[in-house]
């Protein structure tokens, strides 16, 4: 699944090519995604000028004259800017053609994504209203996690993956950040001290920033704006390395299922 770094990389990749351009035409080939594409979207968007591309958690928000187009990439979707006419394939569900010839193409093989029109304040949309702070913002800090975690018996890994606590910390990055911070993924969130949360916040922030710099981590599913895959996965410390030596202490990494997800950790370096 494209995670926050992949979505941010997508935002940065498409924005320079389409911001300031007006919509010529919207072609919808498959309206039945996770939520039905907004009825009448082609008529709503036609002629509107794209002002900016925002990101909120794993959602992209294309700001137009009278509203926002919310896009979620689902499990394996992607957005590409095409400068030349290219025949649409089976899973190319939406094309947004802009003046000047650029085409923003939404591809979603599993159809778990979303393309929805929002009028008014997008912050109040049901999909966005209850989201926690952005992990790369000042609102995300150790005090926030410490206060939200008191008396919580949920594993710390599940806690930081809760989108109401902080957005965009997916499974890969939760594994990596907890290893860097030296915290056992199964430890109860309420038992983690403020000092350890300070280390965890730094680990989450640094891990996500590095992933964005390197273009994301879902090599099989994500293509950057130049058609090149992200390579952060090549530098992962624990995720996907169960049974291999820990880079710190050389002890073989252990694996468990926490929240129905693969969790890899070092029993010596994390406690």
Q: How does this structure look, described?
A:
- Strands 1-6-7-5 form a four-stranded antiparallel β-sheet.
- The radius of gyration is 20 Å and the shape is elongated.
- The chain has helices spanning 4-18, 41-45, 142-149, 156-161, 171-181, 194-213; strands spanning 23-28, 52-56, 59-63, 68-72, 78-82, 92-98, 103-107, 114-118, 254-258, 261-265.
- The longest helix is centred in the last third of the chain and has 20 residues, at 194-213.
- The protein is built from six helices and ten strands.
- It has two domains: 4-124, MutM-like, N-terminal (N-terminal domain of MutM-like DNA repair proteins, Alpha-Beta Barrel); 142-265, Orthogonal Bundle (Helicase, Ruva Protein, domain 3), CATH 1.10.8.
- Helices cover 24% and strands 20% of the residues.
- The two termini are 28 Å apart.
- By secondary structure, it is of the alpha+beta class.
Per-chain topology:
Layout: H1 4-18, E1 23-28, H2 41-45, E2 52-56, E3 59-63, E4 68-72, E5 78-82, E6 92-98, E7 103-107, E8 114-118, H3 142-149, H4 156-161, H5 171-181, H6 194-213, E9 254-258, E10 261-265
Helix pairs in contact: 1-6, 3-6, 5-6
How large is the radius of gyration? Answer: 20 Å
Question: Total helix count?
Answer: 6
- Total strands: the figure is 10
Topology pattern, helix = H, strand = E = HEHEEEEEEEHHHHEE
Content of β-strand: 15-25%
Give the distance, in angstroms, between the N- and C-terminal Cα atoms.
Answer: 28 Å
Average residue-wise pLDDT = 92
Placed side by side, the strands forming the largest sheet appear as: 1-6-7-5
Major sheet: 4 strands, antiparallel
For this structure, what is the CATH class of the largest domain?
Answer: Mainly Alpha
| Structural domain count | 2
Structural class: alpha+beta
Helix coverage percent: 10-25%
